[in-house]
Amino acid sequence: MRVISVSPDSVTTTPNATMTGLAAPSRGSSELSTWTVDMPAEATGPEHSVSREQVWTVTTGTLEVTCDGRTERVTTGQTLVLPPDVPRTISAPGRFEAHVAMRADAVVTVTGAEGTRELPWAR
């Protein structure tokens, strides 16, 4: 058993959102990564795909996601399951917070960029 506390080292801020890493291999989890996302109103992340399924549960506000040519709004209390390897864009019509879970070995491909990236908050 392991209890994980948030520390400044587990927080990553990008131009689009703040991710706070919770469970991850670097914090004692062997298979899963979980984190929270706090995205301010009117922000939009880059179009990207993730090599593993992701599960997003919105805890505050509403997010908008476009995935595989379909756009959905996901509101407080709803859970979104995103398939692997399908381009998606996530945006915030108003500020939202969400809890995200995925396998820890996932990598991200940003549309138009070369190569893959690891998610530092998920490692």
UniProtKB/TrEMBL annotation:
Positions of the Cupin type-2 domain: 37-99
InterPro entries: Cupin_2, RmlC-like_jellyroll, RmlC_Cupin_sf
Top-level taxonomic group: Bacteria
Region called Disordered, residue ranges: 1-33
Chain intervals with Polar residues compositional bias: 7-19
Pfam entry (one): Cupin_2
Protein's name in the database: Cupin domain-containing protein
Organism encoding this protein: Streptomyces goshikiensis
